[in-house]
Design goal:
The complex is a heterodimer.
Chain A lengths: L4 H32 L2 E8 L5 E8 L2 E6 L3 E8 L9 E3 L2 E5 H4 L9 E8 L3 E8 L2 E6 L3 E6 L5 E6 L3 E5 L5 E5 L6 E6 L3 E6 L5 E6 L6 E2 L15 E6 L4 E7 L3 E6 L1
Parallel strand pairs in A: 2-6, 2-8, 3-7, 3-9, 8-10, 9-11, 10-12, 11-13, 12-14, 13-15, 14-19, 15-20, 16-19, 17-20
Antiparallel strand pairs in A: 1-4, 4-7, 5-6, 16-18
Chain B lengths: L2 H12 L5 H13 L1 H25 L4 H20 L3 H6 L2 H7 L6 H30 L1 H6 L5 H8 L6 H26 L5 H27 L4 H21 L3
Helix pairs in contact in B: 1-2, 1-3, 2-3, 10-12, 11-12
The chains are: A mainly beta, B mainly alpha.
């Protein structure tokens, strides 16, 4: 029995329609994937040894590392909806301000920065939320400020002025205390751990009013005044540097290295 | 005896220097002559008055009492001339009357007053400098926030506001700033995504918790300077949080 002519004509037509539908679906999927995929931003600036990096992020992590090259390398992963990034090089200062560059935009995705700077740079970074990390920097200033929550990690730092702040999150500092340096660490809820050389000299005011948990470790000496446990005031060595630590509802710990 | 002769002798007659005969003649004429009798009357009155006045002048005066009277009269006249009317005086207060008063100080009193003014002004200067240094140096301020005895005395004397008043004023100012930024954030937050809104609320709540804690401590112990300092610090953090999120 011969198949009817009508049926022979229908089968290829169905196959064609299926192929077109699959093709369209694939195209749509690809375009969606492209939208969802992270964009990448990368730029390199020649810089002097004492360049200053000033970065203001909205949300996302920022990692800054010192290196032995006289240039600043900025790499950023931009989550959708991708933020605008317009870095500026203003007479020795690299300025990146995502708040200003994206003012008025409702939805802006996280931007995760990895930045390499000359080791003797000054670094001033802040974000509304997200972790901040700075390592191997020995310039005049290191400042890491989180407006809300996120951890601050400062490793191998040797700067005259160091400041780290957040509301919820931990702060970790591992670095040296320079003569006549000024150091400030402040958190509302989290842990503050400070790892410094055992021969450091500084004048300390550490305040933890609610937890009353201030551990001086090897730096504890008879000259410290603990009063009612909420605050410790005292001097280590000649006290040439000044250190102010405030943790409203968390612990403060000193670790000698 | 005629009138002319009689009147020439009247002065001597009044002084009782005429002889008996002459005196009898003059008396006889005076009885007859009305004019001469009038003149005699005048003479006699003047002589009597002069003799009375002479007695008074001859009486030894009490010079101290006299000078006292004179100076009293002069002073009262000067005061009457220079003093404002009673109503005006009433209107002038204590300071007005003190200003009007003539200050007569001895040398020792003047020196004491000058030394007193110098000491008070020096102390006020020291307090002012200490306050300025304290506000410019947070680290030392953290360690020494207790008011000094002198500051306490000044506040008790009403010369400076009490610490509680100052704190209240400072908190009110901060609260006004917080209200302003809060309103700005209220306008903006609808544009944020859900994650940002949640993060903001969570962190604001965390700061509010510590603000409440310090406020409670201060209610229980108004002299707790550490809680006051921490309350200020937490409020500043809150202001910063609101201000920074109002930019988004």
């Amino acid at each position: 029995m011969k198949p009817s002519g009508k049926k022979l004509l229908c089968i290829p037509r169905i196959k064609n329609l299926t192929f077109i539908a699959v093709a369209i679906s694939l195209l749509l999927l690809l375009s969606v994937q492209e939208n969802l995929a992270q964009k990448k931003f990368s730029k390199v600036y020649p810089a002097s040894k004492n360049v200053r990096l000033q970065l203001t992020n909205r949300s996302g992590t920022v990692t800054v590392e010192g290196w032995e090259k006289d240039e600043v390398k900025i790499v950023a992963d931009l989550e959708a909806p991708a933020a605008n990034i317009v870095p500026q090089n203003l007479s020795g200062t690299i300025v990146i301000n995502l708040v200003k560059d994206n003012q008025g935009r409702g939805e802006v995705g996280n931007v995760n920065f990895t930045i390499k700077v000359p080791a003797s740079s000054s670094v001033d970074i802040e974000t509304k939320m997200g972790n901040l990390s700075v390592s191997n920097v020995r310039g005049g200033l290191v400042r890491a400020h989180i407006t809300t929550e996120g951890d601050v990690t400062l490793t191998n730092i040797s700067a005259d002025s160091v400041s780290a702040e957040n509301v919820i999150g931990n702060i970790f500092f591992d670095g040296t205390i320079k003569t006549k340096g000024v150091y400030r660490f402040a958190s509302t809820r989290g842990e503050i751990n400070l790892r410094i050389p055992s021969n450091s000299s500084f004048l300390l005011v550490a305040t933890a009013p609610n937890s009353r948990s201030i551990s001086l470790g090897a730096f504890s000496n008879s000259g410290f005044n603990f009063s009612d446990g909420r605050r410790v005031v005292g001097q280590v060595g000649d006290g040439s540097a000044k250190m102010n630590v405030i943790n409203h509802s968390g612990k403060i710990s000193f670790i000698a290295r | 005896m005629n009138c002319e002769h009689c009147q020439n002798l009247l002065s001597e007659f009044v002084d009782d220097r005429t002889g008996c005969t002459m005196s009898a003649e003059i008396e006889a004429h005076l009885e007859l002559c009305h004019d001469c009798a009038g003149i005699h009357g005048d003479f006699a009155y003047l002589t009597g008055f002069c003799s009375d006045f002479q007695e008074q002048e001859i009486a030894p005066p009490n010079s101290q009492a006299l000078w006292c009277r004179i100076s009293n009269i002069i002073e009262s006249e000067i005061q009457d001339a220079s003093a404002p009317p009673a109503e005006e005086k009433k209107k002038q207060g204590f300071w007005g009357r003190a200003w009007e008063k003539r200050w007569q100080l001895s040398f020792s009193q003047a020196v004491t007053a000058v030394i007193g003014v110098a000491v008070v002004s020096s102390l006020l200067t020291i307090v002012g400098i200490r306050n300025a240094v304290r506000s410019s140096n947070n680290l030392t301020a953290n360690a020494a926030m207790q008011p000094t005895l002198f500051e306490n005395l000044l506040s008790k004397a009403g010369l400076t506001p009490a610490p509680e008043e100052l704190r209240e004023k400072s908190l009110n100012e901060k609260q006004a700033v917080i209200d302003y930024w809060n309103a700005r954030v209220g306008e903006r937050r609808t544009r944020w995504n859900q994650r940002m809104r949640d993060t903001f609320d969570r962190n604001l709540h965390e700061i509010d918790q510590v603000v409440m804690e310090y406020s409670r401590n201060l209610k229980e112990n108004p002299a707790d300077s550490l809680s006051e300092e921490m309350l200020n610090s937490a409020l500043t953090e809150k202001m910063d949080l609101l201000r920074e999120f109002s930019e988004l």
